[in-house]
Amino acid sequence: MGPSKEKGRLVFTSVLMIEKALTSADVEFVTTLHGDEPVSFHVLLQPRGEQADRLLRAIDDVALGELDEAVREGETPEGEAALSTGRRALEVSLAALRASGSDAEGQLVDDHPLDALKTMVEEVDADEVIVLTDPHYVEEFFHRDWASRARHKVGVPVLKLFSHSKA
Q1: Which terminal Cβ of the chain has fewer Cβ within 10 Å, N or C?
Q2: Higher pLDDT among residues 122 and 19, named by residue
Q3: If we measure between CA atoms, which residue out of 127, 104, 117, 128 comes closest to residue 42?
């Protein structure tokens, strides 16, 4: 496989799987992973379900000894509000990647994120997959996180990164 050529330059194609809007630190990090080499990003955003997200954050907080944070977990959108939030998060992320000088396109993923990931990797002839999430310690322990599952699903390297700050 390897990078494709665009206007005489090599372009590295990355499928970027995220669960919330990229922060400026995230954008800087992923856009500089390959030095000055141009990167084309194909973003898949799967907003976590409200109940699953709150449960994981609460368990993570307890596991880290942050009981006060677990008690104070706030409300997160659900249903159509969550989809709307997801669309905005995707638009913000794509705009930030483009502003950094990268090509970027993307879509929301609802069901079957790993199938969507595999399809995207094949469609764009991706060189790599980057999974960028907050650390979810429970999922990590049981190897049920996206990156661990993706390694068994796609035929390209899967790089797992943790978000630099909370959006």
Answers
A1: N
A2: 122
A3: 104
